[in-house]
């Protein structure tokens, strides 16, 4: 349990500072949802945006739970140390991505393109978004959009070897993505600009990499705990 808090914080930072990538993947949809609602119905606009994001975040948690079950099966065997090492390396790689020093993680988006080809036609049936329930379903479907950052976080979460922990990490990641996407949907650019500042991203990336080094098996863990 002591190591869960830094992991949750890592997931939250990944979502929060990965918002620039999220804008590229989902920003268009957020804009479409906003434009589909009359300006005078601002309360309804917020309700639909929250429902959409709730469905999206819920799909992340579900994916974490399902893939976490596979990770639990591996962690229960002799490959537990290898799985923990993989988790640490993924965390370091994601820190490099957040800091803008390496973007190789985006290459794994090809893994989900086959599944997305089957899901995408269903999303069209939910448009236009005229109710919170429809927005919730659309968000749940859109959560499976191929995204290198989401997939990398999902693999890291699944490598924890605990399905519930994997789901919790993906939930924290999803909550982290909420401010930027919600601010975009509500036409609030100040927060988005702040989170895209290089100094903020580098600091967040370094913190995530530090958690990755702490996760990596070895005697250095005791030194890091002491500092």
Automatic annotation (TrEMBL):
Location of the Urease accessory protein UreH-like transmembrane domain: 11-212
InterPro entries, sorted: UreH-like_TM_dom (IPR039447)
Keywords: Membrane, Transmembrane, Transmembrane helix
Presence of keyword Transmembrane: yes
Residue intervals passing through the bilayer: 12-37, 57-75, 81-103, 135-158, 164-187, 199-217
One of the Pfam families matching this protein, by short name: DsbD_2
PANTHER family according to UniProt: HEAVY METAL TRANSPORTER, HEAVY METAL TRANSPORTER-RELATED
Name used for this protein in its record: Cytochrome biogenesis protein
Species whose genome carries this gene: Phytopseudomonas dryadis
Source organism phylogeny: Bacteria, Pseudomonadati, Pseudomonadota, Gammaproteobacteria, Pseudomonadales
């Amino acid at each position: 349990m002591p190591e869960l808090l830094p992991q949750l914080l890592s997931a939250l930072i990944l979502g929060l500072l990965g918002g620039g990538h999220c804008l590229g993947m989902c920003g268009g949809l957020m804009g479409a949802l906003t434009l589909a609602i009359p300006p005078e119905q601002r309360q309804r606009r917020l309700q639909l945006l929250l429902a959409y994001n709730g469905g999206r975040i819920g799909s992340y948690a579900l994916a974490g739970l399902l893939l976490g079950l596979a990770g639990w099966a591996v962690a229960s065997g002799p490959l537990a140390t290898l799985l923990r090492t993989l988790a640490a390396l993924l965390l370091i790689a994601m820190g490099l991505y957040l800091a803008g020093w390496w973007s190789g993680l985006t290459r794994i988006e090809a893994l989900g393109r086959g599944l997305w080809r089957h899901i995408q036609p269903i999303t069209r049936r939910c448009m236009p978004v005229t109710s919170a329930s429809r927005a919730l379903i659309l968000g749940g479907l859109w959560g499976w959009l191929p995204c290198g950052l989401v997939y990398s976080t999902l693999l890291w979460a699944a490598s924890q070897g605990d399905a519930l922990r994997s789901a919790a990490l993906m939930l924290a990641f999803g909550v982290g993505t909420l401010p930027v996407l919600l601010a975009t949907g509500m036409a609030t650019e100040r927060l988005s600009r702040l989170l895209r500042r290089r100094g903020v991203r580098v600091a967040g990336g370094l913190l995530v990499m530090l958690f990755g080094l702490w996760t990596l098996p070895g005697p250095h863990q005791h030194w890091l705990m002491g500092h």
